[in-house]
Structure formats: C-alpha cells, structure tokens
Specification:
This protein is mainly beta. It has one domain. Helix content is about 5%, strand content about 50%. It contains one helix and 13 strands. Strands 1, 2, 3, 4, 5, 6, 7, 8, 9, 10, 11, 12 and 13 form a 13-stranded parallel sheet that branches. The longest helix is centred in the last third of the chain and has 5 residues.
Length: about 140
C-alpha cells in the first residue's frame, strides 16, 4: 500500500499523538503515540515508531510497535519489523528478521466480545541468547 492508496497517512517527517479511529486504511511512516482503532489495514513503515494499543482488521509491520496488537484477520511482521507487546490475531506471520517480543496468540475473533477483552500491559521481557546447532 502506498501513501496514495491509504485513507490516512502519517508521513516520515511527522509526529502525531492522540487517538486514531474510524474506517479506512492507514499508513504510518513517522512517529505515532496513542491508540489506534480502525476498521481497515494498518501499515507501519520501515522507519516508523508507533507506541500504541492497536485494533485493526489487519496489521503489517516493517518498523517498530511498542504496545499490544489485535487484528481481526492477520498480523504480518516483515524483516526488520518489531512488535514489543502481545499479539492476537487468527493468522500471525513473522518473516525472517522480524520479531515479536511478547506473547503471540492465534485466535478467531468470531465475537466482538473476544475482540474487546483487555490484554495485559506489554511485557518487560529480558533478552536471552540461544545457540542452535544444526546436525548435517
């Protein structure tokens, strides 16, 4: 989705604070802090930094999100994308180089009630180093 295809757009040189809600697709390339509740696709660009509680139809992340993410259909974390928080969606896809630091739970949002259930605060998770050996 390009900026021209999005109904709402926060450009790379912009910083926005508040509540973003409504119908339509939104692309964030800059900085956003607040809440996002949209009936559409949220796209977080590669250099974007979003600190928010997010609810959307689907979420595509190439930048950074700090906060919990709920999607009705899909959450995609692309290479270089980061989510520091809980993720709930029927489908969760993480590309090589993408990261979710928190819990991820595939869940079907058949009812509005399950979509509205509050999530715990995004976790304080310490990083651990793991080594893997592949036997040939």
């Amino acid at each position: 989705m390009s900026a021209g295809e999005a109904d709402g757009y926060v450009g790379p040189d912009l910083s926005f604070r508040g509540k973003l809600s409504g119908r339509g697709d939104v692309r964030i390339e800059g900085r956003f802090k607040g809440d996002v509740d949209i009936d559409g696709v949220l796209t977080v660009g590669a250099f974007a930094h979003v600190r928010a509680e997010i609810k959307a139809v689907s979420v595509s992340v190439a930048g950074k999100i700090v906060g919990n993410v709920r999607a009705r259909t899909l959450v995609e974390v692309h290479a270089g994308g980061n989510i520091d928080g809980h993720v709930i969606a029927p489908k969760i896809m993480v590309d090589h180089g993408g990261r979710i630091l928190g819990s991820s739970q595939p869940e079907n949002f058949a009812s509005e009630k399950s979509f509205e259930t509050p999530l715990p605060v995004a976790p304080n998770v310490r990083k651990i180093k793991a080594r893997f050996r592949v036997n040939k």
